[in-house]
Task: inverse folding
C-alpha cells in the first residue's frame, strides 16, 4: 500500500511557519502619540519608545497555545516548570543586526534567516537523538525575537523554545526533563508521531503517540538530491524501505501492513527531503 503525501496538519506546518516569511511585525503594534511642548508654545507629537524587555532565560517554561507558538514575538510571562506548560526555552542567543556597518531591522530577512538557522540546531542539541528520531517525533522548535519597537529600545536577542504537537493546531503538555529526551526510548515513545487511523483514510489525524492511536511513523526515507525527483520517483523510493519497516514492526508476522507518505513538491521546497513509513501500532 502506498499513500499520497498529506498536509502535515500542524506538525510540520508549525516548523514551516516559524521558519518561513513572517508577518509584518509593525502591523497593529503602533503606540499612541504623546504631545509635548517645545518651550515656545508650540506642540510636537512624539511616540514614546517601548522599554526593552528583560532578556529571556534558558529552561524557562510557558503556557502557549498554537497561535502563540506560530507568532514571531511573544511577551508571555514564564511560569514554574512544575506546573502544566506547553513550551520550554532551550536556548537564548544574540541577534547579529549589523552588516558592513549598517544596522538591520529585527524583522529583516537576513536577521530572520539567522534565527531560522540557529534555533533548529540548538533544538537538536537540546532534545538529542538522531535526525531520524527528531523527524519521527512531534517535538518542534519555535523561535521568537523582540518586536520592532523593543529592538529600537535596545533588545537584540532571540529565544528558541521546544513544543510538542498534540494534533491539528493543538499543543501538548511537556513533561519531565527534555534534555536528551529523544536519545531515550521512553522519550521517543511518548513524543513520537502517530495516527488515529490508517494513513490516507478519512479518520486519519496525526497525533502525539502519548494520545490514543492505531498507527505509528516508524522510519524515514531520505532523499539526497537537491532537485525534487518528481512524484513517481518520490513515491517508488519508499516501496522497499517501508515494506521492510512494516515487516520489522510486525515482529516476524507473515501478514503485515505498511504505509508510505512521500514528500510533495511543495513540502520539498519547504525543506522536507524525506518520506515517512507507517505501520500499525496496537
Result:
Amino acid at each position: 500500500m502506498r499513500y499520497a503525501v498529506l498536509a502535515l496538519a500542524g506538525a510540520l506546518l508549525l516548523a514551516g511557519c516559524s521558519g518561513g516569511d513572517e508577518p509584518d511585525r509593525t502591523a497593529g503594534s503602533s503606540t499612541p502619540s504623546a504631545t509635548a511642548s517645545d518651550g515656545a508654545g508650540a506642540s510636537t507629537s512624539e511616540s514614546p519608545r517601548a522599554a526593552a524587555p528583560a532578556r529571556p532565560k534558558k529552561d524557562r517554561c510557558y503556557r502557549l497555545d498554537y497561535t502563540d507558538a506560530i507568532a514571531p514575538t511573544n511577551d508571555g510571562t514564564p511560569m514554574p516548570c512544575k506546573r502544566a506548560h506547553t513550551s520550554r526555552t532551550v536556548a537564548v542567543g544574540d541577534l547579529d543586526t549589523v552588516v558592513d556597518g549598517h544596522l538591520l531591522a529585527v524583522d529583516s530577512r537576513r536577521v530572520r534567516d539567522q534565527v531560522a538557522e540557529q534555533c533548529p540546531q540548538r533544538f537538536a542539541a537540546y532534545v538529542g537523538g538522531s535526525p531520524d528520531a527528531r523527524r519521527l517525533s512531534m517535538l518542534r522548535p519555535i523561535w521568537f525575537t523582540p518586536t520592532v519597537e523593543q529592538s529600537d529600545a535596545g533588545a537584540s536577542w532571540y529565544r528558541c523554545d521546544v513544543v510538542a504537537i498534540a494534533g491539528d493546531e493543538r499543543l501538548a503538555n511537556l513533561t519531565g526533563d527534555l534534555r536528551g529526551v529523544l536519545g531515550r526510548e521512553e522519550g521517543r515513545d511518548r513524543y513520537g508521531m502517530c495516527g488515529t487511523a490508517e494513513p490516507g483514510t478519512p479518520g486519519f489525524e496525526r497525533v502525539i503517540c502519548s494520545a490514543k492511536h492505531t498507527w505509528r511513523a516508524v522510519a524515514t526515507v531520505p532523499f539526497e538530491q537537491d532537485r525534487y525527483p518528481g512524484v513517481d520517483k518520490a513515491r517508488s523510493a519508499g516501496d522497499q524501505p517501508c515494506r521492510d519497516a512494516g515487516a520489522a514492526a510486525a515482529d516476524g508476522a507473515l501478514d503485515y501492513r505498511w504505509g508510505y507518505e512521500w514528500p510533495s513538491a511543495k513540502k520539498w521546497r519547504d525543506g522536507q527531503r524525506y518520506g515517512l513509513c507507517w505501520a500499525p501500532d496496537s
